[in-house]
Amino acid sequence: MTQYMEFEKPLAELEGKAEELRAMARESEDQDMDISAEAAALDAKAAVMLKDLYKSLTPWRKCQVARHPERPHCQDYVKAMFTDFTPLAGDRNFADDHAVIGGLARFNDQPVMVIGHEKGNDTKSRIERNFGMARPEGYRKAARLLDLADRFKLPVITLVDTAGAYPGKGAEERGQSEAIARATEKCLQIGVPLISVIIGEGGSGGAVAFATANRVAMLEHSIYSVISPEGCASILWKDAEKMREAAEALRLTAQDLKQLGVTDRIIPEPLGGAHRDWSATIEAVSAEISSMLKELSGKDAKALIKDRRQKFLDLGSKGLAA
Fold it and tell me: Does the structural domain 64-313 have CATH classification 3.90.226.10?
């Protein structure tokens, strides 16, 4: 059953009534009872309402869609888009971080390295994955896999979906900021194509450590920001309830970031968000990754490194008038 967001309550009522009518028709012993036309009318009204709701989402509503628990997560993309996936575990220093998954795989029969944040899809897996918030060992694992990909000349594909790096005491004691910096540095050093897709939340340095790439794409309703709207509101206004104003000010939507040059392309989502049609979403992401790999194919290591560094040096030079 679909989980509806706060702004979708009127839509939930319509779709709920239509489903009730269909259930009544299935359970009724009266064969002459035909309410399919009434249910179809409600479906049509719900479709129009859905289109209207998603026609111009506010930044805060986009945050809600990006965080929807039923969106496809990293593991779902890996299972659908890659073959022969072989996970590689551990940072060779402390432990294996389950918030970060990575390993060797084939994309359209091309050997690649895939790395991503995994949030989990139920209570047990979310706790195991720490809700996608990586600890230092997760970023050190990512740096190790980036180095491995560089050594074997494998393109790297990263899937970003995290509220941010884990801010716990143990993580800080083990060098969280240093681990993030090392992973970001490694992204800038490798001489192979590096492609990143923001599939949900791109939070702070925890996202940048995976997304310092030659090409950065964002799903239509994903977000990418230095801080969450709630965190920003708590700092600036001392009131987390000001998150709507913070979301506006942060310019964290894919559309704003495309204008600013932070992201290179926006991947359309099905009407109502990625959670309503996994297969269409994953197919669109796969097509964009294939296109970006073709753009980068044929470039040598020096050109790829130069391209990547220049991309980030140029940030802030676009969209300033806006």
Answer: yes
